[in-house]
Each structure stands twice: as C-alpha cells, then as structure tokens.
Amino acid sequence: MELFDSESKKIVSDPLNVNNPISLQVLGICSALAVTIRLDQAIIMTFAVIFVLCSSNVVISLLRDYIPNRVRIVIMLSVIASLVSFVDEVLQAYMYNMSKQLSVFVGLIVTNCIIMGRAEAFAIKHGPSKAFLDGLGNGLGYGMIIIVVSFFRELFGSGTLTLPDGGAGYVLFQMPDWLYAAGYENIGLLVLSPGAFFILGFVIWMQREMVGLEEEE
Amino acid sequence: MGLEHYLSIFTKAVFIENMVLAYFLGLCSFLAISKKIDAAAGIGMAVVVVLTITAPINWFIYEFLLGKGALQWINPDNPKFAEIDLSFLKLIVFISVIAAAVQLTEMFLERFSQSLYNSLGIFLPLIAVNCSILGGSMFMVEREYFLLETMVYGFGSGVGFLLAILALASVRYRLRYSNIPPRLRGVGMAMILTGLLSMAFMAFSGIDL
User: ipTM strictly over 0.95?
Assistant: First the structure.
C-alpha cells in the first residue's frame, strides 16, 4: 500500500475542513481556549497535542486486538496519561518558561476529548499507519483553529505576535508606535476569557459557513 | 484561619475564578448538555458531587504519596525518603482516582438513592473525562491548598459549574424561537452566549476579598 493513496489523503485532510474536531465535532474545546492568549503558547500546545494524538492512536491501534472491550476506557486513559506525563516532563526540562505559562493545561490534555474520541472512534478499529494519519489530521485540525484564534487574540489584544523559542518567546511583530500615537488602542477584552469565547464562536460560524453545516436545535 | 478565609475561597471558586467561564474547563459537556434545563441541572449536580469527593482524596494521595518528601511518614529518621519526588505520576494517579470515584459514586447512588441515581445516572460516566474535575485536582496542587481549603475549593468549583450551566441552559431555552443565522445555530451561538456570561461574571472580580 502506498502511504499517500486517496483514502489516506482523505484521512488527513477531512479533519482540516469538513470534519474539524473543534468547529464541527465540538471536541477538545477546553484546552483550546485557555492557551490562545499568545501565539507561541498555541503553537507549542499544537505540537504537544499532535504528538500525543499520533502516538496514542498508534499505541492503541497496535493493542487493539488485545484490549478487552469492557476495560478499554481505562486502558486508553492510562496510555494517554503516560504520554501526556512524558510531554509535560519534556516541556519542564527544555522549555521551563513555556511550561510555567501553560501551567495545568498541558496536564489537561489527558481529558481532551479529541484524543479519547479518536482512540475510541478510529484507532481501535484501524491499523497503525492509518491511525497515525488520523491522529496527524485531527491534530492539525485542532492546531489550525487554535492558531487562528490566538493570532487574533494576541494581535488585537496585546498588539504583538510571538513565536516560541527557548526563553520568553521571539517577538515577530509589534504594532508600530505611530499607530498608538494616532489613537489606536489594544482591545483589552480579547486578552480576557470572554474574548476567547467570542472569537471561537465566530471562527466556528465561519468554518460552518464554508463547509455548509447546519445544526438542528 | 477563620471562617472568612474559607468564605473567600468559596466565593472566588464560584464567581471570580469560575471553572467554565474563567478557566475554560469542562466546556465539552458544558456545551453539549446545555440544551435542556433539567439535563443541565443533572450534570451540574453530578459535577458538584464528584468534585467534592475527588479533590480531598487527591489531596491525601498527593500529600502522603506523591509530593516531594511526602513519603517521609514511612520513616521520619531516614533522610532518603525526603528526597523522593513522585509528582510526575500525578496525572496518571489523579485520573485513575477520578475514574474510580465516579464508578463508586455511581454504585453508591444506585444502592442507596434510586431517585438521585435515575436523574444523575447517565451523566456520571461522562464526568470522568470532564476537564473541570481533573482541573480541580491540578489547581489544588498548584495553589498548595491544605485539606480544608481543598474541600471548600472543590465544592465551590462544582457550584460554579452548576451555576454557569444552568444560566446557559436557561438562555438557550429562551432562544429557541429566535431568528439566528442558520450556520451560527447551536455551538457557535452557545460560544458567544458563554462569552457574554463570562463577561457578566467578570464584574465579580471587583469584589474585594
């Protein structure tokens, strides 16, 4: 089997648009909002989630013939919790500042519904290579949304754009001073939690307009 | 520390640092189960119960097994025990404790309070993976609460969740016949409503505690 036949491509690309985990399946929103104050936090979180999602999918898919159906939830949770602990330790060792800023939210990847949901809906029924691609696709779909949300929150909330580096972050862009002199002001609301809800609400709306999904109330 | 201290922790947990509206925890079930008021009340009550039980249990486990130097009680004279730091295990242990506590609560309710079991029953399994429960335990560790504070904090966070989900469910119930753009209906609108609620709750942060 060639790695990128049309079915595999579909597995990766579907979660990016027509089946996006956040905006269409409504999974994993909890951590999605908390880490979107700054772009660099969102980027690191994306990598952490992609790593956990891909590896948990592969591990569970490899074990799928050995997991008894009745205790599968506990086994999945322990696989996921071990992987998340690993990510948490790596972050503390190599990116201490970042791990302080993300505080409990790295640990809370354990209860991120995307990971559990993909394990339950996909990995337990498919082979490891497909499960890996599914993890990658859903991780990217998650990352896409939180990076968009954090882009708007940081740019208009704090007037900067920060990329992750080893220390306090590399400032990629800063609103020029003449703009402030001309009377422009940062929107403080976006930095606070209501801003995150509003922006995600609009992002979900936009994405559903593009895909054309309507929800029954 | 007097009653005031605990009252302030409680008020903070319910209003100012509300699990859902300020920390975004437990949003999945918050959005999914807020279409009907009675279901929202059910899951809210279940969260109160489970958070109140699991936060103190996890406190004991962290204090006597996992934290740095926590194993000292085995042999106070041996300095080696003071060096042991098992806190990297806290995620796995906490989530197992929560899963077990949820299971136990379910069995207990089924045996002793059939009516409560019937109303909460289907929500309990969902709660094991509700981030606000694990979040409660993690915040307790991060903020270094001691036992009584943990209990008050756990209960308060649960009440905060209940309050928020009841408010959202009531608003969504009233919105049934409103003319919302079709693609915004459902989750999109719920997010924006949550934003408004969260803005309203921000007014509480002016309270001087």
Answer: no
